[in-house]
Amino acid sequence: MSVITPTSGSPMNSPVWVVEVALPRPIDQFFTYEIQEDQAELALPGCWVKVPFGRMSAVGVIVRAPKKIDDVKSLGFTQVLKKVIKVGEVSDQIPSLVFKLCQWASDYYQSPLGELLSMAAPLSALSSGVNVRTQLPQPEISNSRSGLVLNDEQRSVLSAITAEPEKAFLIDGVTGSGKTEIYIERAKKVLAQEKGVIILVPEIALTPQLESRVREGLGVPIAVLHSALSDGQRRDYWLKLKSGELRVVVGARSALFAPMKSCGLIVVDEEHDASYKQEERARYQARDLAFVRAKKEKAQILFGSATPSLETLERVREEKIGYLKLEKRIINRSMPKVELVNLTDEPLIAGIQAPFSERTIEKIKLTLQKGEKVLIYLNRRGFASYLVCLDCGEVSECPRCSLSLTYHKRKKKLVCHTCDFHSEIPDHCKGCKGVDLHPIGAGTESLEDELPALIPEMKALRLDRDQVTSQTRLKKILSDFSSDQYNTLMGTQMVVKGHDFSEVTLVVVVLADGLFRWPDFRSNERAYQTLTQVAGRAGRGEKPGEVWIQTFDIDHPVLSVILGRISREDFYKSEQELRSLLHYPPYGRLLRLRLTHDTESVVKKEADQIVQMITIDPEKTDIEILGPSTPMIERVRGEHRMDILIKSSQIQWIHRAVKVAKKMTSNFKSTLLVDVDPYGVS
Ligand code: ADP
Ligand code: ZN
User: Fold this and answer.
1) pTM listed for this prediction
2) Would you say 74 and 248 are in contact if contact means Cβ atoms under 8 Å apart?
3) Domain coordinates in residue numbering, the chain
């Protein structure tokens, strides 16, 4: 479908050429522009174009080679078209393989092609021509790595993947079993064949060590893509990857679109990680899309994890992916010992916000006294501080989102972590006018104040999103923690991702319950993955580690598997049975349609209409409709939300439902958000 872009007038003598452009806008349409004949010759699909858009200009991508207007009159437009302002050089053209990958993703995820293409290439930086020569750190001859010899287990995995260079593999290996070294060794061979390497990691900003490890390991400069790059740097890396000057890229999910000519290896490290699912603008699952790219390009793809996703295990079962296991941690490093602390039974420390048993505090003290380090993990999501009225029980909520506001003691503010609303701390309750308002629960801030007061030996550092606003800041916190100045690191999700702290011998999970209380079909799987990852932070050095998990729910199956009371296979099996019974992924396809509007009654009525329409669709086959329902977070930035969840065994029926919904909503007041393979259902 095309939208015509009328303009005030243009002379119509020689043949007029038109071109279809995908713009990075949340619309499922291409735009047609007039293009001069001499520009048309250079206007190849995948080239960027600058075009007038509304009262501004926009940079989009040419979708199809230009045509003479007479040949496309059948499109039925009679208006005069706006004209292309500028066309990009062929050297900026998005390679056809990447372009096709975006088209595939656009069809599958029902995401606008223009948005996907703008993630695949730095369009505005290319078109504005900002010229930056990034200083590329050159590899040094590293002493730490030069003597490294793969152990037997690593070597047998390496020879298996090398023997079948186009086959996909899952490398299922505990944290610290040496997976990264295997990726590096495999990548060396691929580079020697003049092919490129893409290494995807969940959050590159959180793993600054990886960058130098890969660079030193491969002995070549590499591109590192992360969200903190300037436009100019992004352009520079993109052009260098395209020209072949750089052949290795390490980055978060969008690095999968790297424009290298020929890619021989894609690594998806921590393949189970939820951050591979992009939730904003164009939705896509980078792990799955990387698999599609590898197939198209006949590249090898390696998925690495200590706690594989059920999706990937299902592909292993279907024999689409080979399976290799690393059983052991690198020599001398045993798995940490896990200790459960039953908060309902044990005496708790009085007078602090977070629940801590006396025994846990004693353990932390002892560890620090021995000169060892401690990591304290708090699952903020289910466990931040809220302000509660002790008279009537009312919790201070965000006026725009139906979420409790988080209490920030230091800033003396209440903050909404979804829409960023800030307010002063009220002196009385809105409900009953009572003045007895108290923060309950514990954010990382209260821990930072209260624990060192209890434990004089503690020299604490905090790591969470509020702290880490830049990569430099993150590097500073991580390097401070490895110095003698600090012995305790406390924080949220960020402390568990990938870091390799050799002096940490104790990891404390303040309250595990928040992890498995999230109403989502993946919550057990994710709780298991998170706790395993947390545990993996302990005992990475020579000394053995311990993990202390505090909970009010001592018999939870996730804790049983962490403790080894039930086997991982049995835990996975029971999760698989449940999912298969309820037709949840990977045993069925899932689609979430979300409607948003600032009036609740509108969004409710229109959601009902969609359900009705999909229900009576004559072409409807094999789908199950759940809802409409109000999601966990009912309202964001003043917009009410209603969700419709659709299950089916086949992607084509999912796509059919999307088609019906899109058609209907074109004259709805509400906005429709389509999420194929949604990650959370709440
Ligand atoms: P994973 O990626 O599975 O968590 P890594 O590859 O990061 O494991 O290895 C964990 C640690 O062990 C790293 O510090 C790494 O340098 C070291 N290491 C890995 N393989 C070997 C080996 N064969 N010999 C000595 N040290 C190794
Ligand atoms: Zn809010």
Assistant:
1) 0.85
2) no
3) 2-128, 143-328, 333-381+444-575, 384-441, 589-676
